[in-house]
Structure prediction request, 246 residues.
Amino acid sequence: MRIIFNSKHNSHIDLRTGIICSFFLIEGVRPVSPHNDAAFLRMFIFIIGALVAFSVIIAFIANSVSSDLYVHYEQVKEAREQEQIDKRIAPIGEVKIAGQELDTTSSETAVVDKSAEISVAADHEVKMLNGGSDGAMVFSPAVLNVSVGQTVKFIPTNPGHNSASIKGLIPEGSTSWSGDLNKEIIVTIDKEGVYVYQCSPHVSMAMVGVIVAGSPTNLESIKKESDKMQFVMNKERLSKYLNSIK
Ligand SMILES: [Cu+2]
Prediction:
């Protein structure tokens, strides 16, 4: 770039015009009169004004586009996170007792309180957890001693679990139960003996629990019956629970 200043002219006007010229990369501009200088200034102000207006518009557009993009990004992120949670808590199969259909939706479902929003007191509480001292997917406490007639509340501390009694693994004549996923359920234990229940989505991972009401009169038959359950993971968990009963 080459800017020539005419030394015959007022030097500060020349300098200013020179800056304007260099600003627009105009080569060889040589202001020669005050008229030219004024014309340059008008052009300069007009162009600067236009540039400012242009950048304001661009900034406005960029802002609205980026906030739209951000909202979209947040929605996608949220959807992905939900998807991962769904995957994590998805059922991975079910366990069937040899020779019989596993029925957790018995017509003789116990009188239970499913109003999860209102916390109702119960004699005992069992948490449904993604992990505990016994490993992944557990009820806590896993083995619970109660008196006949007492209530047990199952609490969905972590999402994706339920509590349902297992057919053939509760005392003769006792009432079965089947709670909804992610819902609190209160069960009244109405007969003496050992009860084995499951989390339906995670029973193949041996997410099972045991309730002993009074004395474990049916323990031997429960042990025999539970041997027929085929777990994919934590295969020894239920027998460990049952062997801990005295
Ligand atoms: Cu579960």
Notes: The CA atoms of residues 112 and 186 lie 5 Å apart. Residues 34-89 form the longest helix (56 residues). Residues 96-243 form a domain with the Immunoglobulin-like fold (CATH 2.60.40.420).
